[in-house]
């Protein structure tokens, strides 16, 4: 297979545990991720717009490049961990960008949270240059990156994902491979962040309602920790929605509507706007209106899927 400088590399090349890696983007996430790759014994050349942030890695033996292209030059794999689409676009496609520096056959591992459209563009651009591309965004905050507790979701051609598997495994506690279409990993990452954001809005609304009703946040936190946190509740509902198992009902959707109305009644009394609760109440109301009141309340999954034009069981 073709490697850096267009040379053909024997298979054993990829079996070497020590790889030559470029790493572009040393922000809150990139810095600890790059440090873990270094600690795993790989050779690193790093680039960051603000060069001073590379100092801790330089002290541990990484080379510091003047441009993204220089970080990518001669590397078997080059990671990018940058803020957003604009940053990734300029660092990859710029005159002194990653793509210009990558050799044919070299691999770009894109870990930033970016749009599906940009990920598609990256897949096409690298393929047409004879380069390889894997999307590997991550779940977990900087502290998790430091302690190798990230969860990586990766997608791309099978052999390329397998080639960078040891690198991805060096970043976290686990890896889910989502098939050969790289942008699928970006869809999963964005869905995950939507899940977190919705959960935070629900938490924020619950804390506001209880607090304004005279309950100490610590007391509600105690209930939350005893009943919801680290509990199988999320897991149960995710499974019911994934399997579209809405009948027989464990808890009827029409009773869910009643409870959301009770929540909103309490919120009205306490003068606490709860937009997410209002939205969920209307979702349940729509479900009852469509004749689904006796399905399990997790049939919210079916209502949303139907409005997205999805057929049951597909
Ligand atoms: P950050 O601390 O703000 O770092 C952003 C990085 O992008 C820095 O290296 C910054 O360079 C660089 N950058 C920004 N604009 C640029 C530009 N126009 N040209 C070149 N470089 C540019 O962000 P982060 O928290 O590490 O996040 C990085 C990515 O991971 C984001 O896509 C984020 O959504 C995702 N993510 C974050 C978390 C988290 O908890 N923080 C978790 C999972 C995923 P400078 O140092 O020069 O500013």
TrEMBL record:
Q: Which UniProt keywords apply?
A: NAD, Oxidoreductase
Q: Name one GO biological process term.
A: organic acid catabolic process
* Positions annotated as active site in the UniProt record: 189
In terms of InterPro entries, this protein maps to: 3-OH-isobutyrate_DH-rel_CS, 6-PGluconate_DH-like_C_sf, 6PGD_dom2, 6PGDH_NADP-bd, HIBADH-like_NADP-bd, HIBADH-related, HIBADH-related_NP60_sf, NAD(P)-bd_dom_sf
Q: Which residues form the 6-phosphogluconate dehydrogenase NADP-binding domain?
A: 20-179
Name one molecular function that GO assigns to this entry.
Answer: oxidoreductase activity
* UniProt keyword Translocase, yes or no: no
Any idea where the 3-hydroxyisobutyrate dehydrogenase-like NAD-binding domain is?
184-300
Q: Which Pfam families match?
A: NAD_binding_11 (PF14833), NAD_binding_2 (PF03446)
Q: Which PANTHER family match?
A: CYTOKINE-LIKE NUCLEAR FACTOR N-PAC, OXIDOREDUCTASE GLYR1-RELATED
Indicate what this protein is called per its UniProt record: 3-hydroxyisobutyrate dehydrogenase
Organism this protein belongs to: Pseudomyxococcus hansupus
């Amino acid at each position: 297979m073709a490697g850096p400088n267009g040379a053909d590399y024997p298979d054993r090349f990829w079996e070497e545990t020590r790889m030559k890696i470029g790493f572009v983007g040393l922000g809150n996430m990139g810095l600890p991720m790059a440090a873990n790759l270094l600690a795993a014994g790989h050779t690193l050349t790093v680039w960051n717009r603000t060069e001073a942030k590379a100092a801790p890695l330089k002290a541990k033996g990484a080379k510091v490049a003047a441009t993204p292209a220089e970080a990518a030059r001669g590397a078997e794999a080059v990671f990018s961990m940058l803020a957003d689409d604009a940053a990734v676009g300029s660092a990859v496609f710029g005159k002194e960008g990653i793509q210009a520096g990558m050799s044919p056959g070299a691999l770009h591992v894109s870990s930033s949270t970016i749009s599906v459209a940009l990920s598609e563009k990256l897949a096409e651009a690298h393929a047409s240059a004879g380069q390889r591309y894997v999307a590997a965004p991550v779940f977990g905050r900087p502290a998790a990156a430091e302690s190798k507790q990230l969860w990586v979701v990766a997608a791309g051609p099978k052999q390329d994902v397998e080639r960078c598997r040891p690198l991805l495994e060096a970043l976290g506690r686990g890896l889910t491979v989502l098939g050969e279409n790289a942008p699928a990993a970006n869809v999963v990452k964005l869905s995950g962040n939507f899940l977190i954001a919705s959960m935070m809005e629900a938490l924020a609304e619950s804390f506001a309602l209880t607090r304004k009703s005279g309950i100490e946040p610590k007391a509600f936190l105690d209930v939350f920790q005893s009943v919801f946190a680290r509990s199988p509740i999320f897991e149960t509902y995710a499974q019911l929605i994934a399997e579209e198992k809405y009948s027989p009902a464990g808890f009827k959707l029409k009773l869910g509507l009643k409870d959301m109305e009770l929540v909103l009644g309490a919120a009205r009394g306490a003068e606490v706007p709860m937009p997410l609760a209002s939205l969920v109440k209307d979702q349940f109301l729509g479900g009852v209106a469509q004749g689904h009141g006796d399905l399990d309340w997790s049939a919210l999954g079916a209502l949303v899927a139907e409005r997205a034009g999805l057929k049951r069981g597909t």
